[in-house]
Design a protein that fits this description.
This protein has about 325 residues and is of the alpha/beta class. Helices cover about 20% and strands about 25% of the residues. The protein contains 9 helices and 14 strands. The protein has helices at about 25, 55-60, 140, 145-155, 175-185, 200-205, 235-240, 270-285, 300-310, and strands spanning about 10-15, 30-35, 45-55, 80-85, 100-105, 120-125, 130, 165-170, 190-195, 210-215, 225-230, 245-250, 265, 315-320. α5 links the parallel β8 and β9. The longest helix has 13 residues, at about 145-155. It starts with 11 loop residues before the first strand and ends with a strand.
């Protein structure tokens, strides 16, 4: 994809916008005349090629973080992959024409950007971006940032290391698919177990799970063995604490009541993690997992949200190509 010259950057662009809180199907509208964001000194302007959807996008639209959210109108979208078309005066890592990807919001729920990735153009600080691995498509790259950074930070916070065992709850989801791969191929887990529904068990094994647990047929907390770490992506921390070894750790990414010794955390997004994982992505040891119903065309973004909201997605739901 050729980089645009500064002269060819339009003043307005198409973007999905909601002006009030509510269900995405009711409030999300395509606006063809949204001003292209002005970049700050530490930002780049990106011609968006692909964007991934995350549960936080529709939860934010519902007003669940209203007290600390940037008020509407909002262009949703955290994950982006695209081409740099303009750089701020203090930017040193990137130049016009670079293919980049990242999670636009350094803090997920604390005043996230009013202008996200579901647009033709978006702005991002250079510190949240990394160069796109050359072997990945824009859709594959867009699927990664928020999910893989969340997976990585959660593992770090549990002090996960080589030789430890882990149970991943929700192993076929956006974050879970990456926890399995990172635990096995990056951190050197001795054993990876993960839960999913019957039809997704083979996917878990293909990602590196040694034990694929069908949650529709057995209770993970009744497994004969206990684990050094349980990584909960589905909101079952109360049950998860029964599956961890004494002195082990349970981390959850689902907000709400967390039963000790489980703990939750808020992601701090940074391009540094993406750079650190680049060799694993380029070698194919760690792979993006895209839901087979997509990628969705930009015009079908509302349908993509409706599917994501069913909680049945495998891996990530991606919108691509953006016109």
């Amino acid at each position: 994809m050729a980089a645009a010259s500064t002269d060819s950057i339009p003043s307005v662009n198409k973007a999905w916008v909601y002006s009030e809180y509510g269900k995405s199907a009711d409030v999300l509208k395509l606006d063809p005349n949204v001003p292209v964001p002005e970049i700050k000194e530490d930002q780049v302007l990106i011609k968006v090629v692909a964007a991934a959807l995350n549960p936080i996008d529709y939860k934010r639209a519902l007003g669940k973080f209203k007290a600390i959210d940037s008020p509407p109108p909002t262009v949703p979208g955290y994950d982006v992959a695209g081409v740099v078309v303009k750089v701020g005066s203090q930017v040193t890592k990137f130049k016009v024409g670079d293919e980049v990807y990242g999670d636009l919001n350094e803090k997920a729920v604390q005043n996230p950007k009013k202008f996200g990735s579901l647009a033709e153009y978006t702005a991002a600080e250079e510190r949240v971006l990394a160069l796109k691995p050359k072997n990945l498509s824009f859709a594959e790259a867009a699927s990664l940032p928020l999910a893989i950074e969340t997976a990585y930070e959660g593992l770090e916070r549990t002090e996960f290391s080589a030789g430890k065992s882990i149970l991943v709850l929700g192993g076929a989801g956006g974050v879970g698919t990456h926890v399995i791969q990172l635990a096995k191929h990056v951190f050197g887990a001795s054993k990876v177990a993960a839960t999913a529904s019957t039809r997704k068990l083979e996917l878990l094994r293909s990602l590196g799970a040694d034990l694929a647990v069908d949650y529709t047929k057995e209770k993970f907390e009744e497994l004969p063995e206990k684990f050094d770490v349980v990584y909960d992506t589905v909101g079952e921390s109360g049950r998860a604490v029964k599956a961890v070894k004494e002195g082990g750790k349970v981390v959850t990414i689902v907000s709400g009541t967390v039963a000790p010794p489980a703990f939750s955390f808020g992601l701090t997004s940074t391009g540094t993690v993406l750079e650190k994982l680049k060799p694993y992505l380029e070698s194919g040891k760690v792979k993006p997992v895209l839901d087979p119903t997509g990628p969705y065309p930009f015009s079908k973004t509302v349908e993509a949200f409706a599917y994501l909201e069913t909680s049945r997605a495998t891996g990530k739901v991606v919108v691509h190509p953006i016109p």
